Amino acid sequence: MPDTQIVFLLSMPRAGSTLLQRLLMGSGVCKSVGEPSFLLRFLGEGDPILRAATYSEALVETAIQDLRKSWSGFDAAYRKGVHDLSVPIYNGLADGFPYFIDKTPRYSLIAEELVELFPEAKFIVLWRHPLAVANSMSTTFRDGYWEPHSFELDLCYGMDQLRSICEKHASRVHQVKYEDLAADPAGELAKLGAYLGIPNLADVADKELKKGNDGQLGDPTGVKKYSKVSPDSIAEWEKGIRNWYREAWVKKYFTGERAEFFRSMGYDLPKNMREGKVPFGLIDGIKDWLYSSRVINRRVLRPLGSKRRMRKAAAKRGYHVVYR
C-alpha cells in the first residue's frame, strides 16, 4: 500500500474546520473520518494536559520521568514508535485516496509535537475570530449561556500553540482565515490547493458540500445548515456580546500580547464594544453568571477535589482547565 500524504487540519473547536474538511473531501482526492483524535492518547503530558483515568496518571508521569533518567534514548524511541504506528493507520484509513485529512481540533494542544513527529506531513492552521469561537461554543454546547470557561484551555493554551507553530515552522504551515474562506472560497481554496498539490481544488467552491464527514464527531450544526459555503456567519457572533457579564469576560480575555496578536490577524473587539454600546442586560448577565458559576464548580473544581488547589492553579495559568 503506497504511503498517503498526511494532512493535519488544526484549529480551535468551532472555528469552521468541519467546513474546510468537507470542502477538501469534495475534491475527490482527500479522505477523512470525523475527528480521528487517537494521537491525544500518545502525545502531550504535564500541565495543563492532564488525563482523568481509573489509574493514577500522576504515577504514570513519575514513572516516565524515571525511564527518561534511566535511558537518554527513551523520548526518541517513543516518538519514533508513535510515528511508525500512525503512518500505516493513516494509510489504511485513506483507503487508496492520495490524501488523508486528520481534522482534530484538540490537536492544537499537541501541535508542536505533531510538527516534529511528522516531517513528511502537511499542516493547515485554520483561524477564526476567537470571540466568534467563544460565542459559537456557548451557543452550540451551552444552550446559549455564556460559558467559555470550559474551553479556556483551547482559547488560551491551544491558541498559543497554534500561533507558535505558525511562527516557528512558517515554511511548513499553510494558514487560512475562516472569514476569508467564507467570503472568497474559490480564492482561498486555490491557494490551499497550491500548497497541497491539488491543482483544481478551487473548483470545489461551486459544488454542493458533502453531507457530513464520515464520522460521529464534528460540527453538529453547520453540516445540517449549509450545503454550500456561506458568508452569513462571518459577523453573526457580534450579536452574542450583549450584556455586562459577557463584556467583562471579553475585556479580560482580549488584553496584552494576546490582543496584539489578534489585531495583527485583523481580529478586533466587536463594534458595540469599541463604541461603548453593549447593553448592560442585568438579568441576562446574571443568568449567564449563575450558569457559568455552576459549571465551574461542577466540572472544574469538584472532579479533582481541592477547590483551593484548583483555584490556585487557575490563578497561576490565568484560566481554568476542565478535566473530562
Automatic annotation (TrEMBL):
Database matches in InterPro entries: P-loop_NTPase (IPR027417)
Keywords noted in UniProt: Transferase
Domain of life: Bacteria
Gene Ontology molecular functions: transferase activity
Any Pfam family hit: Sulfotransfer_3
UniProt name for this protein: Sulfotransferase
Organism: Luteolibacter luteus
